[in-house]
Amino acid sequence: MPIVKHAKWKTYLDVRQSFPGTDPVKVASGKRVYVFNFIGNAYRMICAIHFNTGKVFMLRFMTHANYSKEKWKNEL
Questions:
Q1: How far apart are CA 43 and CA 58, in angstroms?
Q2: Taking Cα atoms as reference points, which of 65, 54, 43 lies closest to residue 5?
Q3: In this predicted structure, what is the pLDDT of residue 1?
Q4: Whole-angstrom Cα distance, residue 46 to residue 58?
């Protein structure tokens, strides 16, 4: 994703400017991940974003149906 590679995101609001369909979600570990919606909300990509280092880690990519089961929240 060239947009992500060249992004200089410092906050969640910066992410939303590039990807308006992104939402922060707190998971079982207490950490915050960011959920990107793709292809008319048919798919979800869950990422950890380290704003201090500028690194983005893709943790999960799943269908909306699998995302809705919320099992992934307990795994992260």
A1: 14
A2: 54
A3: 57
A4: 6
Q: Which two tokens stand for residue 17?
A: 């400017």
Measured distance CA(49)–CA(34) in Å, rounded: 7
Domain at 2-75: CATH architecture: 2-Layer Sandwich (3.30)
**How wide is the angle at C-alpha 25 spanned by C-alphas 28 and 8, nearest 5°?**
125
**pTM of the full structure:** 0.90
Distance CA 23, CA 45 (A): 11
The ranges assigned to domains in the chain are 2-75
Residue 7 near residue 14, CB atoms below 8 Å: yes
Residue owning tokens 């969640």? 12
Residue (of 4, 15, 64) closest to 23 by Cα position: 15
Does residue 26 register a pLDDT over 80? yes
